[in-house]
Design brief:
This protein is 77% helix and 0% strand. It is mostly helical.
């Protein structure tokens, strides 16, 4: 069952965003969370053009707040890459998806535990690689090579 956003839900998300911007400033991680939530609702209603700038802003806030190699940044990268894939901008989506996978692989290697989103990103990256013209075997080999590079076998 696919969830769809209603107008009141989107309206509430805009209000939550405005409240958090007023409370914390426009570059706070809670604002990035609100931006991502609103973008997810817009994406669910196929308003991809409205969702993209919100996702890009959330990504910029997360990068400034956490640094480039944080799982929150990887999640924002993955969400933006999925949106770009949905709008058939595969070439723009690939480096974002790869970067998200690299962050989760680094996390998994360093903690010796797979990040909860690792398999989701691996699967998404495989789907993207196939959509870009790779065979299933080629996509699997690229992912295997990345896992080996980061010494992640889990």
């Amino acid at each position: 069952m696919r969830l769809t956003a209603t107008r009141p839900q989107v309206s509430y998300q805009w209000r939550a965003l405005a409240i958090d911007e007023a409370s914390y400033g426009d570059a706070h991680p809670k604002v990035a969370r609100d931006l991502n939530n609103l973008a997810a609702l817009l994406r669910a209603t196929n308003r991809l053009g409205d969702a993209e700038p919100l996702m890009r802003r959330a990504l910029a806030i997360d990068e400034a707040s956490y640094g480039d190699a944080h799982p929150e940044v990887a999640t924002a990268l993955y969400n933006l890459a999925r949106l770009l894939r949905a709008t058939n901008r595969l070439g723009a989506a690939e480096p974002l998806m790869r970067r998200a996978l690299e962050v989760f692989l680094t996390f998994s290697r360093d903690t010796r535990h797979p990040h909860p989103h690792l398999n989701t990103v691996i699967n998404g990256y495989g789907v993207l690689l196939v959509a870009m013209g790779n065979t299933q075997a080629e996509a699997a080999e690229k992912i295997r090579a990345m896992r080996a590079q980061y010494a992640v076998s889990i």
